Amino acid sequence: MAVNPGGADADEPPSMLWGLDPVFSAYSRLYITDILQMKESTQVPGVYFYKNHPLFQVDVLGTVVYKRERDDFYCYGVDDSTGVINCLCWKDEKWKDQGEPSKYRDPSGSSRGFNIEDELKRLKEAERKSTVLEIGDLLRVRGTVKTSRDAREIKANSFYKVSDPVMAVQISHMLEMPQLYRKCYDQPFQMPSDDLGGTEAGGSSHFHYLLSRSVLTLKEFLLEKEVARFRPYDVEFLLHPLIQSSSAEQESDQPRSFATQIRKLLKETLSILQDEGQIFRKIRTQDEVYNVTEQDKDLHTAIKDVLREDTKREKYAEKGCHVLHILSSVRQRYSQNLSREVLEVALTFLECNSDIISTTEAHYIVL
What we know:
Strand content: 15-25%
Distance between the termini: 54 Å
Mean pLDDT: 83
Structural class: alpha+beta
Low-confidence stretches: 1-8, 98-110, 197-202
């Protein structure tokens, strides 16, 4: 059975399979010229294709070459030397009516020492200043690609000014980009092999459709129920309707048992979620327990403790801790089985919750 939704371009993979491409759920680090030239999907408006990779979120680093300010947002023109794109950056409500840091001095004129309220105001002021840029400043922006009035732009989810006096960040970015293209974006996405039976073409497409639905179903369940940890048999029931409807619609020359199909589908689903860093096994034992990265409060505490303690050292005081340093420290403190993918999901979650902030592409400090 060929899977080709009505109106789909022959060069586009079916939309039901997009979730299997890791690029789809990530902020893609593309050159601006490629963002401007990407073709919009004929199946789902707002999704674009770089080669056969579907994407809608990008991560851009460039120089501000023009600026417009409105009551609620800034419009920054960002140039990465391959092209210029407009970035719509909304102002944060919390900066309105933000006062200046207070100063505490004793009658003799000397400082009264450390004051937590004063220091907190200073940190907030530094964070506020990082969102106000001028022409010539270096801007990093992560956001959603949009097409407005036939012009391509980025609607920012997060943005900040990058301090790069010796161009270390820009040089690192320039060296990293060709590798990302060579190893990821320029490589056609290959669908995983089918092992649930069915015809060679139709069975494979049907399995990928089941797998994408299974991954989405499990993600939604873990988010909605705020699950912190689980065992495979705790979530197996979620896949039963998928296999039951599949058995009614899909005929196979070599039918497999219901239990076998469930086990295979669940195994592949958990494997994808682990590769994405959404779940992990803190301890590898026969009792197969998975921790949910965004709900693991102990992991979040361990990360913040590492940042809070190590950024007091002169070596990390200015830029913060590199992601590899954080990974090594958290492994020693929390779990040797922690992968970089898991750590990056946790760091993104903490940054979105304003618990930490990234000072460069790979350095973090705690707020």
